[in-house]
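Need residues for this backbone.
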């Protein structure tokens, strides 16, 4: 099921609220039918996208708490709607042109000319290959010398890397042994109203980065929960309950979990803010458009979640980069 791709999806959710409906309305598609059962408050919908997508992509777009299914299983139910959505005629295929006898010409003279040209070309190739062979012999001598030099350089680099790794481990296990864990750090972060407006004006990436960096300002270098030793490869050392763990930014499960936790905190803060400011939830209020923009950016509807995580990870890696001098 996960590998199938289609343009039409149906979904339902047992409970709906204004935030969920607003998020669904922001999805870019060709058609979107959305209905609510007033007795049961069950939300049902059918989305028709311009391009085929997988079920996993749609689940990620709509949200974790929604149940989605490929509409092929319910074809009869939505057949009438599908017929109304798609119009147009199938283009007719042009007739294949058949060569007449007048278009067929003798090829004897052409073949003879081509063979003569091939013979001359073969001689040129032979001369070229002889010259190339001589050059290869000379290059082979140079390559042997270069290989010897490269091997010596690699041995020196390995020695330097081993010393560097030793220094990092000593720094983390001795100087930073009492550092706060990543879980404790994330739980201590507070989401403020200004963070919501930062997301509205500058996007989710900058908002999450600011929250993380604000928390780091309260930690000295030996007590913070994460260090970066290579910003290019995004090599991170993260403190958890069992000690320090080395991860790469793009594959860091702990950092991705931390980013998702901050994002969920922002969504919760947004719900509280809308309850405290009902004018943001009124269609007739001047603040309604601001509310929609804030919801779009806080929930990450305007950008793919993977891209958001990568950008935030890159920003955090730069913020917590530690130089060799700082580890002495």
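Answer:
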């Amino acid at each position: 099921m996960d590998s199938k791709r289609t343009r039409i999806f149906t979904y339902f959710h047992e409970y709906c609220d204004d935030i969920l409906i607003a998020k669904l309305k922001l999805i870019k598609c060709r058609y979107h039918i959305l209905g609510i059962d007033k007795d049961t408050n069950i939300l049902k919908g059918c989305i028709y996208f311009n391009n085929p997508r997988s079920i996993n992509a749609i689940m990620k777009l709509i949200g974790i708490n929604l149940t989605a299914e490929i509409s092929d299983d319910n074809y009869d139910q939505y057949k009438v709607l599908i017929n109304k959505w798609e119009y147009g005629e199938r283009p007719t295929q042009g007739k294949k042109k058949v060569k007449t006898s007048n278009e067929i010409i003798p090829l004897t003279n052409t073949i003879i000319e081509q063979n003569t040209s091939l013979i001359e070309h073969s001689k040129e190739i032979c001369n070229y290959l002889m010259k190339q062979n001589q050059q290869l012999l000379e290059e082979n001598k140079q390559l042997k010398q270069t290989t010897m030099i490269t091997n010596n350089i690699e041995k020196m680099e390995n020695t330097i890397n081993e010393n560097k790794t030793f220094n990092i481990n000593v720094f983390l296990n001795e100087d930073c042994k009492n550092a706060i864990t990543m879980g404790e750090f994330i739980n201590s972060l507070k989401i403020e109203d200004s963070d919501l407006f930062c997301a509205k004006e500058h996007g989710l990436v900058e908002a999450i980065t600011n929250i993380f960096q604000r928390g780091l300002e309260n930690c000295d270098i030996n007590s913070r929960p994460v260090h970066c030793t290579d910003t290019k490869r995004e090599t991170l050392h993260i403190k958890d309950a069992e000690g320090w763990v080395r991860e790469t930014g793009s594959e860091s499960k702990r950092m991705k979990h931390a980013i998702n936790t901050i994002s969920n905190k922002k969504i919760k803060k947004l719900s509280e803010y809308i309850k405290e400011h009902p004018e943001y939830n009124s269609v007739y209020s001047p603040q309604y458009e601001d509310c929609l923009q804030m919801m779009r950016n806080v929930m990450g509807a305007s950008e793919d979640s993977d891209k958001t995580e990568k950008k935030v990870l890159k920003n955090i890696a730069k913020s917590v980069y530690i130089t060799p001098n700082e580890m002495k």
